Amino acid sequence: MESDSIEEKLPRALPLATLIGRELRGGGSERPLVRFGHSGFAKRGEDYFLVKPDCLRVPGDPSSAFSVFGVFDGHNGVSAAVFSKEHLLEDVMSAVPQGISREDWLQVLPRALVAGFVKTDIDFQRKGEMSGTTATLVVIDGFTVTVASVGDSRCILDTQGCVVSLLTVDHRLEENAEERERVTASGGEVSRLNLCGGQQVGPLRCWPGGLCLSRSIGDTDVGEFIVPIPHVKQVKLSNSGGRLIIASDGVWDAVSSEIAAQACRGLPAELAAKLVVKQALRTTGLKDDTTCVVVDIIPSDHGSTSAPSSPKHNQNKLRSLLFRRSHSSVGKLGNKKKSASFGFVEELFEEGSALLEERLGRNSPSKANAPPFRCAICQVDQVPFEDLITDTDGGYCSAPSTPWAGPYLCSGCRKKKDAMEGKRSSRSTACS
Q1: Can you tell me the distance from the alpha carbon of 271 to that of 259, in angstroms, rounded to the nearest whole number?
Q2: Are 91 and 85 spatial neighbours (Cβ–Cβ below 8 Å)?
């Protein structure tokens, strides 16, 4: 929970149109350069990453270019991580209305990310496989960065002022009291592993399944209260740009956000990613898959300069961190840096609720000329039957009775929504 003093220091949010206007008027009409690098070591082979620097929102229109990067940390197998890498971006883009302006695209993107994550989860669970995955997806359009994440992979932002800010929230039951309360309220049990004799060991887990995370994609063997609804944050960088470090928990369990950022300041993205991974391995060894993607957002007039930079007299000291065991504290990034970090960026949007009604909203825009009954999640046109749901055996049962004020959802996605809120089991096919 952020203190009142921190809230008071945050800058007042500005309309997105105002910020884009500033970008165009301030000599920033040219888009920034995006440079990236990635590195990793495998212990289980369940980490995957996504690098797509040349996406086009409008086919054939270079002015609609954007970049996407992602990290997927699988568990109980690789299927969910591979499936998410291959389908998540497509599912997100299917929820974006066609023919809209750049301003509108950036405004609807957080909602589309929620719909895309849920659709990917539904489609994967239909395969009947048991694996699951974290997912951190980063969309970069100009100086606007939008990050959506479930699980404990993380994305941090390092600015030219050498201030580190966290753009994701860790969904670990051990550390997130709000998520523990949500899971238990939805019907799950949260406890440690019980050994013979009643001794409890290890981190807090959700039962059934024993998962340490409260949000993920997949995990068909765990209750639906483990949800795929992402935390989403959207920020607008200053015209000095910044550096993003996206990594799996194999990095963050070994080094803090500050140390990861310090270790590679002033270095090109490709080398930076390698050095972050090397620092993690030097700290704890290869205990888990370790994956890192570094993305530099560089003003076009800076050419190939890496970002952010650090004072020259400090660079040897920072590099030396990579060749000896660090004695700095290892842990999560605290809130103490947050107020300072937003002197360099504008926060446009942040929401972490696990309720679809809050995330999709009552005024979700539909695609131009789309039928009125196009599902906001699966994007399939439906003929609504308000009182009937087809089950997997071809029978029918009553539709959920809970009022739904949001955009239209088909029967299957309504069923998923209610299951995530603990109102019914989405895997139950028997109807009374």
Answers
A1: 16
A2: no
